[in-house]
TrEMBL record:
InterPro entries given in the database record: Mrp-like_CS, Mrp/NBP35_ATP-bd, P-loop_NTPase, YlxH/NBP35
Protein name: NUBP1 factor
UniProt entry keywords in alphabetical sequence: 4Fe-4S, ATP-binding, Cytoplasm, Iron, Iron-sulfur, Metal-binding, Nucleotide-binding
Compartments reported by the entry: Cytoplasm; Nucleus
Any one GO molecular-function label of the UniProt entry: ATP binding
Chief site of localization: cytoplasm
Transmembrane segments: none
Length: 274
């Protein structure tokens, strides 16, 4: 059933992080918006952060509900070519706590993959919870029935974040999940008035760049801090559209382009997927 449902998905990208608060859901949302800017591409964003589903808020879909049809659950659409699914749509209030044990979480992830009617999809972006726990094992196991292009791992420059990212890279290698590359978020702040750059989170051990060199992983890019990113997320708007000239937007666009190029190079022929 999973294979049949996911056969129409051309590329699958997992967004991972070692710890929370590093901007993983923000990157997932920006990646979805950036890919969907090409109207010929159909994009799906699946939020499997069961206990902290922030994607409905970031995508401006709070209060929306999932509808069921004969072909399964219908995603909630931001644009005609950008559909979203999250446990947040199944809660009666955004403040509801999801107090579930592992098996129930895993069951919902399986249901999302098996029962959501995405249709033909060029890119499926999966926003995962932080860490290397039940949900990560489940999504990798369930998606093994199909083709995963790889994982994008999000970090911030300081060692306390990089320490957990090394564990995430180790996890990917153990479960044979390809790593597309690492994104360093909150990488410096350029003052809009004086144009001086400050390191809010100093890279005490060389930041993501040094870590990627040591572990032989690609650094996809560094995204500087921009207060507008947080404002756009809170308003449920696309940061790329609201701040097209921001250095952070230019960085995001380069990252998105590199992810696209990687996916196109590593795409399996149709017969191999089936």
């Amino acid at each position: 059933e999973l294979r049949a449902r996911l056969r129409a998905v051309r590329h699958t990208v997992l967004v991972l992080s070692g710890k929370g608060g590093v901007g993983k859901s923000t990157l997932s949302a920006v990646l979805a918006h950036g890919l969907a800017a090409d109207e010929t591409k159909q994009v799906a964003l699946l939020d499997i952060d069961i206990c902290g589903p922030s994607i409905p808020k970031i995508m401006g879909l709070e209060g929306e509900q999932v509808h069921q049809s004969g072909s399964g659950w219908s995603p909630v659409y931001v644009e005609e070519n950008l559909g979203v699914m999250s446990v947040g749509f199944l809660l009666s209030s955004p403040d509801d706590a999801v107090i579930w044990r592992g098996p129930k979480k895993n069951g919902l992830i399986k249901q999302f993959l098996r029962d959501v009617d995405w249709g033909e999809v060029d890119y499926l972006i999966v926003d995962t919870p932080p860490g290397t726990s039940d949900e990560h094992l489940s999504i990798v196991q369930y998606l093994s029935a199909t083709h995963i292009d790889g994982a994008v791992i999000v970090t911030t420059p300081q060692e306390v974040s990089l320490q957990d990212v090394r564990k995430e890279i180790n996890f990917c290698r153990k479960v044979k999940l390809p790593i597309i590359g690492v994104v360093e978020n909150m990488s410096g702040f350029v003052c809009p008035k004086c144009k001086n750059e400050s390191q809010i989170f100093p890279p005490t051990t060389g930041g993501a760049e040094k870590m990627c060199q040591n572990l032989n992983v690609s650094l996809l890019g560094k995204v500087p801090l921009d207060p507008q990113i947080g404002k756009s997320c809170d308003r449920g708007q696309s940061f790329l559209a609201e701040a097209p000239e921001s250095p952070a937007t230019l960085s995001y666009r380069n990252i998105i382009q590199r992810i696209q190029e990687y996916c196109e190079q590593h795409h399996l022929p149709e017969e191999k997927i089936m």
